[in-house]
Specification:
The chain has three helices and six strands, in the order ββαβββαβα. The chain is globular, with a radius of gyration of 13 Å. A four-stranded mixed sheet has the order 3-4-5-6, with helices on both faces. A hairpin with a 2-residue loop joins strand 4 and strand 5. It is an alpha+beta fold.
């Protein structure tokens, strides 16, 4: 199922936003690795795993702050958030989350 949302004035699929977000993270945190998780492996696991030096974070990409959350997504964001930085991210909160990600990795 494809989702559309407004991103910088144009309708864009969630997958397109996710690809642009990966590029932003890689530019913001040079040397990091961003891996896309397979949602068929563990239902609800966040979309992206970000690795940097000895640290990691996970991000669940959404089309908007009010987008529907799939079963177990909130559970995994909360549980993994106790281990490292984990968050829902959308165009609505992107700037804040990317700043928090930099802080978590000690590059802010």
């Amino acid at each position: 199922m494809a989702f559309l949302f407004v991103f910088e004035g144009a309708d864009v699929r969630e997958s397109t936003y996710q690809a642009e977000l990966i590029k932003k993270i890689e530019n913001l945190i040079p040397g990091c690795m961003v891996l896309k998780n397979d949602p068929r492996e563990v239902q609800g696991i966040p979309d992206l795993l970000v690795l940097f030096e000895t640290r990691w974070a996970m991000l669940e990409v959404k089309t908007s702050a009010g987008a529907t959350r799939q079963p177990n997504q909130t559970y995994y964001v909360e549980t993994l958030g106790q281990m490292s930085y984990t968050s829902f991210i959308s165009p609505d909160n992107e700037e804040e989350v990317l700043h928090e990600l930099q802080q978590a990795f000690g590059v802010a």
